[in-house]
Amino acid sequence: MLGFNMASAASDEGADADVESASGAEVGALSASPEASAEVPEDVAPGEQANLPTPAAPEAAASAEDRERTSAEVSDEELEREVAALLFASPEPLSESKLAALLDGTPQVRVRLVLDALARRLSASGLPWELRVIAGGWQLYTVEALADTVGRLSKVRKDEKVSPAGLETLAIVAYRQPVTKGEIEAIRGVQVGPILRTLVDRGLVKVAGRSDDPGRPLLYGTTKKFLDSFGLGSLDDLPRDGELLRD
Known about the structure:
This protein has 247 residues and is mostly helical. Among the domains are: 72-148, Arc Repressor Mutant, subunit A; 158-241, Arc Repressor Mutant, subunit A (Orthogonal Bundle). Helix content is 54%, strand content 10%. It has eleven helices and five strands. It has helices at 2-32, 58-73, 76-89, 96-102, 108-125, 147-151, 164-176, 181-188, 193-201, 224-229, 241-246, and strands at residues 129-134, 137-142, 179-180, 205-210, 218-222. The longest helix is centred in the first third of the chain and has 31 residues, at 2-32. The protein is elongated, with a radius of gyration of 38 Å. The termini are far apart.
């Protein structure tokens, strides 16, 4: 009877050990699951575990890949159509960086290639439109040969016209900028205060700083609206002495 009881006790102890072993395995499996904790490399000390980088969420990585794939899947022909639509709808020139932003972050280099392709397509199509670089941006224009035809549509209000005296003053500012009021008056031989104020109010001329001359008079220069109004890409496109003499 004693031998039987000892064997039975040994059997019970073995069963208990098996239960404990199974329980330990289950706990280990739970702690190793992604929901319980992140996997930690064996060679990382316990105190350094807090400095380990947090794995990126699968959803975020997938979203970034989708965006890249969507941008790459837009064909050059479709992108050209979108660029043409934006230029047609915009009342002002659009820079390459602005177009890139409007096209969901399309690389600026690709936007420039599409603009060049669109310019060539318009030139070869025989349509009365062309792409020009105006004031640092791109804009659709009718061709110069049809300027008189298009001009029949425009009815410029009288208060928007620039007088001959205003044009003379504006030309001096454009060629001599930055220039003071006194320098303009020395060239024209008349007072230009009211004319300058009118040009400033219309956005064609701006205050560009102060001169180092006694009294520190204001300096005047032209604006981006001036370039836009006269169809100039930059001040370098202004006619020079030789060109004016030929005309």
